[in-house]
Amino acid sequence: MSARSFKYRGVRQGDLCKVTVLGRPLDPRVDLRDHSSAGFDWGDGGNGSAQLALAILADHAGDEVALSLHQQFKAAVVARLPSERWTLGRDDIDHALAALETSGAP
Q1: Residue 30: which domain range?
Q2: Which of these, 92, 90, 78, 96, lies nearest to 35 by C-alpha position?
């Protein structure tokens, strides 16, 4: 799979978690909800992971979907991302959202 087929990339550099969307920094969308003043994180169920889930869903599916499903997306996807680096494509996110809808997530 080529690098261009991935939409989102995360890289941990020491204490800094950098996330890009199509090569640009991902907007954390604290205007929707501010879960983490420390920024993004992943691989756990904490506040940084909630902020990342919110930001990815807002960028990918819109604010309404992000606000209603980011906690479930955090648990299903973001909390399970590898610690050092990861990539997510559109299809990965769409499949996760479809699974959440099937499970009856609010």
Answers
A1: 3-102
A2: 78
